[in-house]
Design goal:
Jelly Rolls, 8-stranded mixed beta sheet, globular, alpha+beta
């Protein structure tokens, strides 16, 4: 199949999550194959209630519908841990290209002053900025409920990936004792004026962590690079788009791909919404080539590194308009 005709696999994991032994084996093989070929795939049968996604998108739209001067009260630059709102033009994920035509809101684990990671002054760990409940009623409850459900799904997906390497299903749990996931709400407004050369909704980039779980609306615009060409990633009802990040590629000794992806600009009068959940592991977890991914024919390509140091290195390598962050 040529790149222009390629489409991402859709993997139904319902039976696997219910414990069917053969279904788990089949799902594990399918995830492994998709990770090796594309670095991207859809999952259905994931068990995340549609109502949670609908509530999240409703809250996201309600926030982004606020006047810009109101949203700027929670600008990310007011946070010492990179949480909050970033406006259109704040970020350029494709270094050297024009600013991305998107706005977003970052949320992470809401850590107080007594949290061990906060006391240890671990970078980017601390409290969220929460929009005023009077302006966006239910925002905090909806986003936290959604993040909890996605965390559960993330554990299950890593269990299947472990099984694909003939590892125990709970292999990755030792790296998930106090993870540092990030939820990013995204809005791509319509393009009402001319574009700069090369300007898109979200510039071509890879994600940095282990796996990303993306919910998207039916508007479209997401593309993944495959065999040097861009292939569309259209909306599939009741699915998540899952992709491997740079850390997972490194962890798997490049068995699994971390693929470039982007979002095209939206035409006049069309809005796109999505929500990316970056399922990042413990800050201090040491990452080295996974069993099943290294042998005499495939020696380790990377030195061991902590997940936190990997993220710091990615910040240092990334040039953006006004700061560095993970993408779509």
């Amino acid at each position: 199949m040529s790149a222009s005709m390629a489409s991402l696999p859709i993997i139904d994991i319902a039976a696997a999550l219910q414990g069917d032994i053969e279904a788990r084996s089949q799902a594990a093989r399918a995830l492994d194959a998709a990770g090796r070929q594309y670095g991207f795939f859809y999952v259905t049968g994931h068990g995340v209630a549609a109502a949670l996604r609908e509530a999240l998108f409703a809250q996201s739209k309600a926030f982004f519908d606020l006047p810009l001067e109101t949203k700027l009260q929670w600008h990310i630059d007011r946070s010492t841990v990179r949480r909050g709102f970033d406006p259109v033009g704040w970020q350029s994920l494709d270094a050297g290209m024009p600013a991305d035509l998107k706005e977003s809101f970052y949320l992470g684990v809401d850590r107080g002053v007594d949290d061990p990671l906060v006391r240890a002054q671990v970078p980017n760990q601390g409290p969220n900025q929460w929009p005023d409940e009077a302006l966006v009623p239910g925002f905090q409850a909806a986003t936290q409920a959604y993040a909890d459900a996605l965390s559960h799904l993330g554990h299950q997906l890593l269990g299947l990936l472990a099984q694909s390497l003939a590892l125990p299903a709970d292999f990755f749990e030792r790296y998930l004792t106090d993870p540092m996931p990030v939820l990013r709400l995204l809005h791509y407004p319509p393009t009402e004026q001319g574009l700069l050369a090369g300007q898109v909704g979200s510039g071509a980039h890879t994600d940095w962590g282990s796996v990303t779980l993306l919910a998207q609306d039916a508007v479209g615009g997401l593309q993944v690079q495959y065999e040097g060409q861009w292939i569309d990633v259209p909306f599939v009802p009741d699915s998540f788009v899952v992709n491997m990040g740079d850390l997972m590629a490194r962890w798997s000794n490049d068995r699994w791909r971390s693929a470039l992806h982007r979002v095209l600009p939206q035409p006049s009068q069309r809005h796109r919404y999505s929500a990316a959940y970056f399922f990042d592991i413990d800050y201090h977890a040491v990452v080295s080539a996974l069993p099943g991914c290294v042998d005499a024919a495939h020696p380790a390509r990377y030195a061991p590194i902590t997940a936190g140091q990997h993220i710091v290195e990615m910040y240092q390598r990334t040039t953006v308009a006004a700061g560095a962050s993970e993408g779509v």
